[in-house]
Design brief:
By secondary structure, this protein is an alpha/beta fold. The chain folds into two domains: 7-58 and 316-414, Aspartate Aminotransferase, domain 1 (Alpha-Beta Complex); 72-314, Type I PLP-dependent aspartate aminotransferase-like (Major domain) (Aspartate Aminotransferase, domain 2, 3-Layer(aba) Sandwich). The protein has helices spanning 7-14, 47-50, 59-71, 82-95, 107-124, 144-149, 153-156, 174-180, 204-217, 238-242, 299-314, 317-333, 363-373, 396-414, and strands at 26-30, 33-36, 41-44, 99-104, 131-135, 166-169, 185-190, 193-194, 200-201, 220-224, 249-252, 263-268, 271-273, 279-281, 338-344, 347-352, 376-377, 379-380, 385-388. The longest helix is centred in the last third of the chain and has 19 residues, at 396-414. Bound molecules: pyridoxal-5'-phosphate.
């Protein structure tokens, strides 16, 4: 009888080695827990990097997947399907401002649509403009446009020449933005709460200032809410939690499908004057033939997302994210070895003190590895920050369990 090839060996032999993976192979999940192939249980405070917003195997998500899979999985965007229209309506109501939605499959693609929107808007301006401002420590995805927009050298290295037309300035520094604006500038893209860069929320003054600057110079203000959006921070919208302003475009992915791949870009309904003197709504700039993707907004993806968003609403998960987030923050604040706790709702990060020594590559990797050994999954964000992104269905008790593991781990690593 043939013996089964171990999962790790399948990867070694057949999977491109572009990820630094931990030595665990997962086989199932339920609620806030996942089990590896040896049946060891882990408390999942990474949620697949902010994706599994309803935890694992949520009955309502399973029911929606099963129901829609029996009806219709895919037909292409050559045709209309009800779930795509319904989901677009739902997302427009979440933003609360008139607009329309383009569907894709990931955060990188949701941002790609935003980059192309900015280019198209800029090309319709007279004289035409193309340059976009993004911020230090940002992360906007791994396509060539995404890494060109991302202001972190580590993602750009080895892929030069990058796409022209992105200018990076310090985050939360309005003066730097004002100085960077020139005759070519057409848009500003910002994460209201930077995720990969280390959990840094934008200040209210900064976001309000960006809106003002965009209005003054006729620039598009685009929020990348791929990681922070749709409930995680205790509000449907990150920018609304921080500042009461209106964006021109928003990109989402990750939690929107609860684990089923989906990306979406909301575009505001506002009049744009074209070069030839005619007028068009910004949300109608993408006309047939200008942009698209085969899988974007399939009935299966959209019906699943609708069930995910309805569940967030009906189970009161936004308020729960807010309450449990502040509870976790309060408890983490007192722990030895933690220099600072940042974030909002259930998008949290703790910065490690220098005394937490790195036995591996960085102190955050050392802590994340030790937490894994003790049955808690977290995500590093830079060399000294550990991110907590649990499902919004997490319980009070699970938050206490995670904090206790973090506390004893740090105490043991520091040797107190
Ligand atoms: C803010 C932000 N934008 C874009 C992306 C890219 O999303 P994806 O990995 O789905 O392409 C990420 C992924 O971490 C992200 O955090």
């Amino acid at each position: 009888m043939a013996t089964e090839i171990p999962t790790r060996k399948l990867y070694d032999d057949y999977v491109v080695p572009n990820y630094g993976r931990y030595e665990i192979a997962f086989s199932r999940g339920k609620g806030s827990y996942v089990w590896d192939e040896n049946q060891k249980r882990y408390l999942d405070f990474g949620a697949g990097i902010a994706v599994s917003i309803l935890g694992h195997a949520h009955p309502r998500m399973i029911a929606a997947l099963e129901r829609q899979a029996r009806e219709l999985v895919h037909v292409s965007n050559l045709y209309y399907t009800r779930p795509q229209g319904e989901l677009a309506k739902k997302l427009v109501s979440i933003v609360g401002t008139d607009g329309k939605v383009f569907f894709s499959n990931s955060g990188a693609e949701a941002n790609e649509a935003a980059f192309k929107l900015a280019r198209k808007f800029g090309n319709e301006s007279s004289p035409s403009r193309f340059e976009m401002i993004t911020f230090h420590r940002s992360f906007h995805g791994r396509t060539i446009a995404g890494i060109s927009a991302t202001a972190q050298d580590k993602v750009k290295h080895g892929f030069e020449p990058l796409l022209a037309g992105f200018r990076h300035v310090p985050f939360n520094d309005l003066q730097a933005v004002e100085q960077a604006i020139n005759a070519c500038t057409v848009a500003i893209m910002v994460e209201p709460i930077q995720g990969e860069g280390g959990i840094y929320p934008a200040t209210k003054d900064f976001l309000v200032g960006l809106r003002k600057v965009c209005d003054q110079h006729d620039l598009l203000l685009i929020f990348d809410e791929v990681q922070c959006g749709l409930g995680r921070i205790g509000n449907w919208c990150g920018w609304k939690e921080i500042a009461g302003i209106e964006p021109d475009a928003v990109s989402w992915a990750k939690g929107i499908g609860g684990g089923f791949p989906l990306g979406a870009t909301w575009i505001k309904k506002k009049i744009v004057r074209m070069k030839d003197g005619s007028e068009l709504n910004l949300c109608d700039l993408f006309q047939p033939g200008s942009h698209g993707t085969t899988y974007g907004g399939t009935p299966l993806a959209c019906a699943t997302s609708l069930a995910v968003l309805d569940t967030i609403e009906q189970e009161g998960l936004i308020a729960r994210a807010r309450d449990l987030g502040s509870y976790a923050k309060k408890m983490l604040n007192g722990i030895v070895g933690i220099k600072e706790v940042r974030g909002i709702g259930l998008m949290l990060g703790f910065e490690l003190e220098e005394k937490v020594k790195a036995s591996g590559k960085t102190s955050s990797q050392t802590v994340v590895l030790e937490l894994i050994r003790r049955g808690l999954l977290t995500i590093p964000a830079g060399p000294s920050v550990v991110r907590l992104l649990p499902p919004l269905t997490v319980t009070h008790q699970e938050v206490e369990e995670a904090v206790q593991i973090i506390k004893t781990t740090l105490e043991d690593l520091i040797g107190t």
